[in-house]
Amino acid sequence: MSIGFQVLRRKRAASIEWIEKFKALPVANISDVMHRLTAGGPRLRPYHASGVLCGIALTVKTRPGDNLMAHMALTMAQPGDVIVVDAAGDLTNSIIGERMMVNAQRRGFAGWVINGAIRDLEWVKRNTLPVFAAGISHRGPYKTGPGEINVPVAIDGMVIEPGDLVIGDDDGLLCVPFDQIEKIYEAARAKHAQESSSFDAIGLSDQQADCAKLTMLLAEQGCRFEA
């Protein structure tokens, strides 16, 4: 085995049916039912025109500024896949640009997550192929390796394993672990339904009663009120 320089096959993957189900749910609701413990970090932001990122993770780990393994991942990905590239968050050199994004778009991939920089921002902003990245750089990448494909990667403490479900919207990026997909979906769907049904009542409750409840809660926590 060549340590740090290997191409592995994905051993398991979320079914394609979960993509459309999770697309209908806000990332915030999914995050809530996961106890708000997981996140892709505030630097990873959507740069595309519009639309939710949701797909099955094909992971790439590469040295900063090198995209050799990202090119290899393009030859391995399937429709519905999100190519997740951990380039250590370095913004010196871009990892992907317009040509690689067009390739992914035409092959029906679900999008890109780049823990690093991208370029050709004008194209990204005009298109709906989901692209999350840590930043922008006009400086192109190197193509010498090393790197690994289909290994666990960690972005800002969020572990993404090959075959996990990756979802992102304007609020940020989240990974749903493969073995928890159904449980998390049912909880998030219920959370979303509960919040949606309560919107009509917002602002219509008894303000004095609300104040009394909050006053009691604050007092229990030791809050001092000015006389």
Helix content: 25-40%
What's the end-to-end separation, in Å?
Answer: 72 Å
Task: Compute the CA-based radius of gyration.
Answer: 21 Å
Q: Specify the structural class.
A: alpha/beta
**CATH topology value:** Glucose Oxidase, domain 1
Overall tally of structural domains: 1
Regions with little confidence, pLDDT below 50 for 5+ residues: none
Annotation field: number of helices: 7
Mean pLDDT: 95
- Provide the β-strand percentage band: 25-35%
What does this structure look like?
By secondary structure, this protein is α/β, with parallel strands linked by helices. It has one domain (5-193): Glucose Oxidase, domain 1. It is 31% helix and 25% strand. Pfam families: RraA-like.
In short:
This protein has 7 helices and 12 strands. The protein has 227 residues and is α/β, with parallel strands linked by helices.
Keywords:
alpha/beta; Glucose Oxidase, domain 1; two-stranded antiparallel sheet
What secondary-structure arrangement, pairings included, does this model have?
Blueprint: E1 5-7, H1 17-23, H2 27-33, E2 45-46, E3 53-62, H3 68-76, E4 81-86, E5 94-96, H4 98-106, E6 111-118, H5 121-126, E7 131-136, E8 147-149, E9 153-155, E10 158-160, E11 165-169, E12 172-176, H6 181-198, H7 207-220
Parallel strand pairs: 1-8, 3-4, 4-6, 5-6, 6-7
Antiparallel strand pairs: 2-7, 3-8, 3-11, 9-10, 11-12
